[in-house]
Amino acid sequence: MTAPNFNNYIAATSAPSNIAIVKYWGKKGIQEPVNPSISFTLSKSITKTSISYSQSDRDLSIDFLFEGKSKEAFIPKLKTLRERLINHLPFLKSGSLKIESSNTFPHSSGIASSASSMASIARALYNIQIQIDPDVTANDKQAFISEMARLGSGSACRSTMPGWVLWGETQVLSKSHNKYGISINTYIHPMFNDLQDTILVIRKGAKSVSSSIGHQLMENHPYRDGRIKQANKNTELLLEALKNGDFEAFAKVSEEEALSLHGLMMSSSPAYTLLAPESLRAIKRIIKFREHHHIPLTFTLDAGPNIHLIYPKSQSKIVLPFIEEHLRVLCDNEEVIFDEISLQ
Ligand code: DP6
Question: Which fold has domain 193-340?
Answer without folding.
Answer: Alpha-Beta Plaits (3.30.70)
